[in-house]
Amino acid sequence: MFSSLAEIKQAAVEKIIPDKAAFDAATLRQTLLTKPLGSLGKLEEIAIWLASWQQNGCPKLDNVDTIIFAGNHGVAKHGVSLFPAEVTKQMVTNFKNGGAAINQLCALNGTNLKVIELDLDKPTQDFSIAPAMSEAELIEAINIGASAVSDDADLITLGEMGISNTSSASAIAMALFGGEARHWTGKGTGLDVHSIEKKAEIIRKAVGFHEDFRHDPLEILRRLGGRELAAIFGAVLAARKKHIPVLLDGFICCAAVAPLYMLNQSALSVAMAGHLSMEIGHISLLELIDKPPLLQMDMRLGEGSGAVVALSIVRAAVATHNGMATFDEANVSNIESNKNTEKVNTNRAL
Amino acid sequence: MFSSLAEIKQAAVEKIIPDKAAFDAATLRQTLLTKPLGSLGKLEEIAIWLASWQQNGCPKLDNVDTIIFAGNHGVAKHGVSLFPAEVTKQMVTNFKNGGAAINQLCALNGTNLKVIELDLDKPTQDFSIAPAMSEAELIEAINIGASAVSDDADLITLGEMGISNTSSASAIAMALFGGEARHWTGKGTGLDVHSIEKKAEIIRKAVGFHEDFRHDPLEILRRLGGRELAAIFGAVLAARKKHIPVLLDGFICCAAVAPLYMLNQSALSVAMAGHLSMEIGHISLLELIDKPPLLQMDMRLGEGSGAVVALSIVRAAVATHNGMATFDEANVSNIESNKNTEKVNTNRAL
């Protein structure tokens, strides 16, 4: 449990690296499997990434947690979303009753869904005229996020629910990376062009109000974030400490960890971006935090839905990596250059 | 069973359309589910496409067949692949023993793998100096492909195995769509630049040899194809007749159905392209046959592997479409404009 912002910053900058021996073992294994070298493309990269972080040449996905954090936002009073704020709570009930998209996707992809409500009856302050959270509130939300990460998870996927939280994400992105408000302001749940302009005006005003703090990523998270975004930040902090790989969801989820990237550009190597969302700012944000997305499904739902769809790709990576026969095992003729690669890699792994 | 090329052509041009009532029912259902309208992006399109072809507003994926056709090629004698021709047979044995990538992907994604060998001990003729197949051989291969499609399949995914068959695919694409041989000639299993040039020279020579038949798509399939490509062509013919949706794999699989597209530009509406392969000609080919790919995983393995990875996306589409609660069922507040859409669509469906 973190008790101060200084401790959180220290955790963010701590050097935590994936395991070299597991990386080498997984890389070698990929050269031995019955397929042309490199022919599984990103599946090979994903398997090696998982192996390195799990510190296991044959990574597992037996215990995958999907964690959704839900929060409410003071800025909702400005009508920055098509849906009223009470929908956050209603959707949490829908998650609990199994009726939402994320429930179907978790069941399909074999994950344990955890839904964590953060003071839904107490929205954050309206960030266009005040900091969204106090220091104590920020620390509490980060701790809740960190505590949600079980020691025994093989991988976690993250997501959020919070009416108006694309506004929070847009404001964070603009504050950290600059650019025009309009560049970062999208249609969220489906705003028309006029309403997007109004939303951009709120974001422009908010970033102006907090102008003096733009150099301090954690302060930006406190001032422009929401509880569910802070919890996502905390969950990634905990996951890297525990060497648990992470799949990120869309724009809001990525904005939540952008302050972590600004504190430590290697902190997000424990995570992959599940998909490119249709929300307008996501493509720039992914480029700025250096996370190419696995999928592009034109989704913009949130709830962690894109991350769980992407999990099916990660499962394909692990299934092929662990389950395929080697050339020797299957008596399939390999080509000379592959055989040489084996030798090189074997030497490197020793 | 087809007994002549004329019958095959007739089947190719037959007008077969998806079901309008199922399309309307699925489209309406998407507007009622607890999510912002359109927020599941391609998953919504996929669910509606499946519904239309299965003639069922709530489509099923209980019985999915993955069919791999294997063939050998006379052109292999020119060294157009890194691997020797006997690897085709060895990999078929690997499929049967469960050691290949496709076995792991089928197990993961719940499909029945059928591996169909087409005269592996009798390679096609070297297409650079003769037609690859006789008319009787082409018809037989198309019939084998068509017979492989079970009446009770909810969806099929297609794939192939055949050392040197990227050469066949490149030659078909060049013959049908024009352009330079080098544009269509890729590294296959991993050729270096020098070997790709040699391979392109063979393809250029072959297309020149069969120049007079480039206006006749079925003749191009006979002259430049292989048995496994003809079988894929036959499988899609049968699938559309039976209203069974199809997931196509990479460059070779798409080249096999390109002659069908040339015979009838709506014939491929029963199919989706699973992924964009790294094989150089695939991106142009997909554009020319009007099939945007679902995934881009930098794969180039064949075996139907990209199609089965894409199946996980199709499963996500069906799981959300069939399993989610509606706004009414979940007591979630909907926005007015969604409610209006419901009304419009209800009227249209009646």
Structural summary, described in words:
The structure is a homodimer. Chain A has about 350 residues and is of the alpha/beta class. Chain A has 16 helices and six strands. Chain A has a single domain, classed as 3-Layer(aba) Sandwich (Rossmann fold). Chain A has a six-stranded parallel sheet, with helices on both faces. In chain A, β4, α12 and β5 form a beta-alpha-beta unit. The longest helix of chain A is centred in the C-terminal third of the chain and has 19 residues. The two termini of chain A are about 40 Å apart. Chains A and B meet through α4, α5 and α14 of A and α4, α5 and α14 of B.
Descriptive tags:
homodimer, 350 residues, alpha/beta, Rossmann fold, 6-stranded parallel beta sheet, 9% strand, disordered C terminus
Outline of the structure:
With 350 residues, chain A is of the alpha/beta class.
Q: How would the global form of chain A be characterised?
A: globular
How large, in whole angstroms, is the Cα Rg of chain A? 21 Å
CATH fold type of chain A: Rossmann fold
Largest interface: A-B, 60 and 60 residues
In the CATH hierarchy, the architecture of chain A is 3-Layer(aba) Sandwich
Extended strand count of chain A: 6
Quaternary organization:
homodimer
| Biggest sheet character of chain A | 6 strands, parallel
Tell me what portion of residues of chain A adopts beta-strand conformation: 5-15%
Major sheet strand order of chain A: 2-1-3-4-5-6
Give the domain tally of chain A: 1
Structural class of chain A: alpha/beta
**Stretches of chain A where pLDDT falls below 50 for ≥5 residues?**
340-350
